[in-house]
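hey can u run this one w/ protoporphyrin IX containing FE bound, need the structure tokens asap thx
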Amino acid sequence: MSYLKLFSVLTLLAPLLWPTSAYTWPNTDTDILEAIYYQQIGYDGRRFSAFVRTCETGNNLGPGRTNSAEWIRTAYHDMATADVETGIGGMDASIGFERSRQENVGFHAFTETLLFFGDFMSARSSMADLIALGAVMSVTACTISPNRKPLFLPFRAGRVDATEAGPFGTPEPHQDLTSHTRSFEKQGFNSTEMIGLVACGHSLGGVNGRDFPEIVPAKNDSTNVDSKQAFDTNTVPKGVQLSEVITPIPLKPDNLFIAMNDGGNMTITGDIRIRIDDNLPTDSRQVFIHFKPRSPSTPAIPPVEATRLSENTTAWHPYAPSFEWWNFTTTVPASQGFESFTVEVVDDGQSTVHANGGGGFPLQTDLIPQNHLSCSSVYLGRAYLLNLTVAVRDELNFQDVKLTVPIPVRQAESVVPRFESHVLDMEKTGVLADTGYSLYTASLDVRPEHMYVTIMSYGLSGRGGARDVEVPFVLWKGMGTCPYS
Ligand code: HEM
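ok here u go:
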């Protein structure tokens, strides 16, 4: 089966294209998935793709087993019960609830795939999006060849996880051609597309004789307990709005923290991730951050030169992007403050200013997490702990400052958790002299019976004052460790 054919049929699993609009930072709906997709190894590498480094990765799991085949099969079985007319079913991670069905026989593929993806779930990376991303990455891994660029299918985000099992209807091998054709019609595919999908989907992985002895004989082989034998050779549910295609962002700020200091100053630290253009040597590169003060009547803030980090972020997949990182820090009086910044990149005397679509990279300074006064911890099997202190701008006169923490909770019959929000009032605990800010604190201590390791986050809100402020998605990052007691 040719790679191009595999590409053309698997793109059918991707949603319809619509015109793209330019990305502006931050996009809290997609930034984390962009990092999971493109930051593969090295500095802040997310390692999702480590398990589909090549099409064959996973062979060590058992004879004939490969992660790419299991991930693609999981994606297909999750979406196969789609009914394009009613808009029910589709890629929604309902496979988590449907693993015991006859139509989903497969000891390894579904449970192990979902458990692996679980580590990458967050309030902004649903299991359904991760299943789709897994299929996209598997196709890239399985189309790596010495003389051609591998295939990078367009990936969009925004799928919502189901909270219960979906309809039956995944095609089974014992069914006749008419029922297969009907089932693919329901999923939105005609018979030519059905043949392409089944044939190309089955150019990866194989059948295990333990579960399907009617297709391949079960063997008594201790080195192949599954009796695995290799093969010869869009839709989302109604009401789900997918994002733009997630492409690697050329220049992206990350890890921004602002600390309020004694003496009425504030210190910002942060990283700038810059995509490496292989044709452009960057040894002589300089990067400058130009801050715009929040208070226009105050003097200009001098440009801040950033320092290149020694480690880059690279990729296992050829032609996937690599990034270099630059770190910066500066301190200004809190009365001057920060509103936004632009990034100037100078290569051999040639300067390019990155202004995030014109308005600069915005800095939110109404509710500022104080990481040096906060802590967080996930004690596996025991507790999720967060003790958060936030500097709150006094002039906004909020009546109500809240901390919202999505905690992964167990769903009966699924290995996929759902997030349940814990909403806490933040209490004023002090005034920061000469800054115009006060400190607010809240503590979360959740000790569930069943724990999951996901990417933990929180949100902040300030209401009932001069204007409402929402900070939707902040990672548990850059804080000390909360002690367990
Ligand atoms: C009439 C429709 C289909 C039927 C009846 C069917 C049936 C099967 C069966 C019986 C297996 C062996 C599973 C095992 O031994 O664990 C299998 C494996 C697989 N199927 Fe399908 N399938 C269908 C359509 C598709 C489609 C459309 C795709 C993807 C686009 C797909 C992707 C795969 C993959 C990648 C594997 C290998 C899994 C592995 O090696 O772990 N299948 N399929």
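The helical segments are 3-10, 31-38, 67-79, 109-118, 127-142, 177-187, 191-201. anyway lmk if its weird
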